[in-house]
Amino acid sequence: MADTNRKPQWQKNLYALWLGNFITGAGASMSLPFLPLFISTMDHFSKFQLNLYAGLAFSVTFLSQAIVSPLWGKLADRTGRKPMLMRAAAGMTITATLTGFSPNVWVLIGLRLLQGCFSGYINNAYALIASEVPNDKSGQTMGTLTTGNIGGQLIGPIFGGYIAGLFGYQVPFFIFGGLMFIATIVTLFFVKEDFKPMDVHNPLANKNAFAGIKHKSIVWAMIISSMLIQAATTSINPIISLFVKELMHGHGNVAMTSGVIAALPGIATLLAASRLGALSDHIGPQKVLIAGLIFCGCMFLPMYFVTSVFTLGIFRFLVGISDAALLPVTQTVMTLDTPSEAISRIFSYNQSSQAIGSVVGPMLASLVAGVLDYRYVFLMTTGLVLINLAVVGLAYRHDRKTVKTA
């Protein structure tokens, strides 16, 4: 008699990949906050040099990631997603560990460049689950998978800061490498993929990834939306601690307070992502996405007027709830509209788009804060959200017209 309580393989994969996402998020975030401090120990740099090298070390990973992700995505659609997960986990194990041994800043920047080339664990985890999950479970499942990465990003800086304070700035990189080795083992033994290579005679095999997609304008809108969401979310990163210091008038523990303010959106996203994903399964992802964008803009705009850290913290927490309605839902839409033969390529384009957002957002914010003031960054971010809302709204409107005339 068959065991009716036995979990389907896609659920087992979800548990293993949630852990892998958690490890990846924790490992990456435990080392990033201390890059400038690590670089400062390598030589006697001026303030300008230190900012320049720290910016290069941070952004070069995302730049290389944006360039190579489509190539890995194309390979994943031909060989399977599990080999790409193994490649990413093993690659980051090596590059993260070697980064801790960097003798100078240029070796560190070079290793960060390589790390971007080999990264993509989280993107491939989404692609593998998206290719297996039933359509009526896709929203909740993508939301759940997102909580793994977000949870890791919350714990990583706290743990990394404690370790760096005790043992030095190199040690978080060694721990990052060790964690990615664990992710490699978990993926190897607990993730199983029933992958069927694409038939070379299949018309989709030799066409671009969008060839088999019915709602092309929707998928393109989701990719652009991912970039704008990431740009809006990360734009605050370079100025948040400086703005908190200004609100506190230089008194109190600015570093700890900044850490809490920075973590609040992630906490909210962790609590809300799965629930909002389930809601999108019931009422449709379009409604959740548009409502999330409107709510997001309504939360960013008042930050321009805040006069206390407590008020800023409230709005930051609420922004995290809107984040839970955005990235997981864009991935759900792509899952529903993309044939399995092209899903890795589409998700890799999405990763490239997010990586570009991670570069553009902080750069724009630094420029705006330098020319005007910290508060104007929130107006800029509100503008990005409004542009995003327009992109999504126009795409759905265009798709409806196309369907009617078809």
Automatic annotation (TrEMBL):
<keyword id="KW-0472">Membrane</keyword>
<feature type="transmembrane region" description="Helical">
    <location>
        <begin position="84"/>
        <end position="109"/>
    </location>
</feature>
<dbReference type="GO" id="GO:0005886">
    <property type="term" value="C:plasma membrane"/>
</dbReference>
<feature type="domain" description="Major facilitator superfamily (MFS) profile">
    <location>
        <begin position="13"/>
        <end position="400"/>
    </location>
</feature>
<feature type="transmembrane region" description="Helical">
    <location>
        <begin position="378"/>
        <end position="396"/>
    </location>
</feature>
<keyword id="KW-0812">Transmembrane</keyword>
<dbReference type="InterPro" id="IPR020846">
    <property type="entry name" value="MFS_dom"/>
</dbReference>
<feature type="transmembrane region" description="Helical">
    <location>
        <begin position="15"/>
        <end position="39"/>
    </location>
</feature>
<keyword id="KW-0813">Transport</keyword>
<feature type="transmembrane region" description="Helical">
    <location>
        <begin position="51"/>
        <end position="72"/>
    </location>
</feature>
<dbReference type="InterPro" id="IPR001958">
    <property type="entry name" value="Tet-R_TetA/multi-R_MdtG-like"/>
</dbReference>
<feature type="transmembrane region" description="Helical">
    <location>
        <begin position="256"/>
        <end position="276"/>
    </location>
</feature>
<dbReference type="Pfam" id="PF07690">
    <property type="entry name" value="MFS_1"/>
</dbReference>
<protein>
    <submittedName>
        <fullName>Multidrug transporter</fullName>
    </submittedName>
</protein>
<feature type="transmembrane region" description="Helical">
    <location>
        <begin position="218"/>
        <end position="244"/>
    </location>
</feature>
<dbReference type="GO" id="GO:0022857">
    <property type="term" value="F:transmembrane transporter activity"/>
</dbReference>
<dbReference type="InterPro" id="IPR036259">
    <property type="entry name" value="MFS_trans_sf"/>
</dbReference>
<keyword id="KW-1003">Cell membrane</keyword>
<dbReference type="InterPro" id="IPR011701">
    <property type="entry name" value="MFS"/>
</dbReference>
<feature type="transmembrane region" description="Helical">
    <location>
        <begin position="288"/>
        <end position="307"/>
    </location>
</feature>
<feature type="transmembrane region" description="Helical">
    <location>
        <begin position="171"/>
        <end position="191"/>
    </location>
</feature>
<keyword id="KW-1133">Transmembrane helix</keyword>
